[in-house]
Amino acid sequence: MHADPDACIGSGLCALRLPEVFDQSEEDGTVVLLRAEPGPDQQAGVVQAVDTCPARALWVETTGA
């Protein structure tokens, strides 16, 4: 799981959707990644957060099989 605070526009959708994984900086409202490796029970929420990020500041690296 990766987050780019430089690309983030501070919409907060990720932090609202999954506060155990994402937060917002008190300084400028940009994304703060709390857990780089979310648990299996959080994967659906991570996918939704990545898909709904308006700045595309979130992504998950996948390994090819």
TrEMBL record:
GO molecular function: 3 iron, 4 sulfur cluster binding; electron transfer activity; iron ion binding
Keywords: 3Fe-4S, Electron transport, Iron, Iron-sulfur, Metal-binding, Transport
Cofactor: [3Fe-4S] cluster
One Pfam family named in its UniProt record: Fer4_13
Domain of life: Bacteria
Function: Ferredoxins are iron-sulfur proteins that transfer electrons in a wide variety of metabolic reactions.
Protein name: Ferredoxin
Source organism of the structure: Micromonospora okii
